[in-house]
């Protein structure tokens, strides 16, 4: 109960911080800089990290908490390279770079939840993001 109050107080403190301070806190918590300047996104991401840290620091985690962690690990798409990898694609003579994050992607300093959304931003068209970035190949049946 006391941990929950402490976490709630920490989240309220995040809301009072300036974006630049949140970016510094992100570096402190995650060990990497963020290109995001979206205050609400940074607050949400840092709050989730605080809650996760509080949940993990308890004397014994409950079985559902352990199961959720395993489930989360399985949710990561196996077609994706490790977080921090920068995908490059040359399209219409210009090279585009997209950074793979733990949750989503970063392109031009903006966070995207899906690779297809990034590709739509680049091309203005709806594409399969994995196909466009060369992470998968079109099946022979589909191309025939």
How would you concisely characterize the structure shown here?
The chain has helices at 2-16, 19-30, 39-56, 63-75, 115-123, 129-132, 140-143, and strands at 86-91, 94-100, 105-107, 110-112. With 144 residues, the chain is of the alpha+beta class. It has two domains: 2-75, no CATH class; 86-143, no CATH class.
Question: Could you explain how this protein is built, in words?
Answer:
The protein is α+β, with helices and mostly antiparallel strands and 144 residues long. The protein has 2 domains: 2-75, no CATH class; 86-143, no CATH class. The chain has helices at 2-16, 19-30, 39-56, 63-75, 115-123, 129-132, 140-143, and strands at residues 86-91, 94-100, 105-107, 110-112. A 4-stranded antiparallel sheet has the order 1-2-3-4, covered by helices on one side. α1 packs antiparallel against α3 and α2 (19-30) packs parallel to α3 (39-56). The radius of gyration is 19 Å and the shape is elongated.
């Amino acid at each position: 109960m006391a941990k929950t109050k402490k976490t709630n107080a920490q989240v309220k403190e995040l809301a009072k911080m300036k974006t630049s301070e949140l970016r510094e806190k992100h570096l402190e918590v995650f060990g990497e800089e963020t290109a995001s300047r979206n205050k609400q996104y940074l607050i949400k991401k840092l709050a989730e990290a605080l809650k996760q840290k509080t949940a993990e620091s308890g004397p014994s985690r409950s079985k559902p908490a352990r199961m959720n962690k395993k489930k989360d690990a399985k949710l990561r798409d196996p077609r994706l390279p490790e977080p921090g990898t920068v995908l490059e694609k040359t399209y219409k003579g210009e090279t585009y770079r997209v950074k793979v994050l733990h949750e989503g992607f970063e392109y031009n300093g903006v966070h995207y939840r899906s690779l297809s959304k990034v590709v739509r931003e680049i091309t203005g068209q709806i594409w399969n993001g994995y196909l466009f970035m060369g992470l998968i190949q079109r099946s022979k049946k589909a191309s025939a």
